[in-house]
What we know:
Layout: H1 3-9, E1 12-17, H2 22-34, E2 38-43, E3 60-61, E4 70-73, H3 78-88, H4 94-107, H5 118-129, H6 134-142, H7 147-159, E5 161-163, E6 168-173, H8 175-181, H9 185-195, E7 203-208, E8 214-220
Parallel strand pairs: 1-2, 1-4, 2-3, 6-7
Antiparallel strand pairs: 5-6, 7-8
Amino acid sequence: MTAFDDIKNAKHIVIQTDNLSFANANVLYSYVLTLHKKVSLVATEQIDEKFSFLSWFSHVRETVSKQADCTIEAKPDATELYFALKEEGVPVNQKMATALFGALLEFTQGFSNAKCTATAFGVAAELIELKADHLTCKEFLQRREPLSLFRLKSILYKKMLQSDNAQVVNMYISDEDLESSGASLKDAEKVMREVLKMVHVKEVRLCKSDENNKILKSIKEI
């Protein structure tokens, strides 16, 4: 039984989501509304403000309704959801197209990672034809960064060291750094991905300087 079958057979659907899948969750929410069914959007973490341009951002809840008889877990793959909608014959309206384009931007990290295939570009073109507000997606998801992130960048850049013939960059962070910048470890990962673009660098490690330089995360060149 597919998720679409579950939705069709249910009276009250809960769509469970996180930041990675939130844009796609908006698509599913819109779809359920077209079926005139009751639907709830439940987040397992606080949803980033950057997604506030999406239609159902203000409808997010933190708890699951006990009356729901179906729970669907949203996934981050925008191309997979788009083709599933097409296979089901679901008309993609402008709200859905915009959310799908936003999901595609997130999934491919702005059309820059290995998930950015010819298929992804093809889907992007089709979504723009469906009136996706791609400029708003780019504005909110790629051009708006909080002051806390810039503070964190300054801290991390000062402390980073290269090793292994400049192929590895070690970045150091502490609880004090996070508190003083107002940023999060998720923000630190964004900085890591920027540093991975440096010439010759193939790996970036984030180390906890106040915990014996324990490696919190490592990302490598694909």
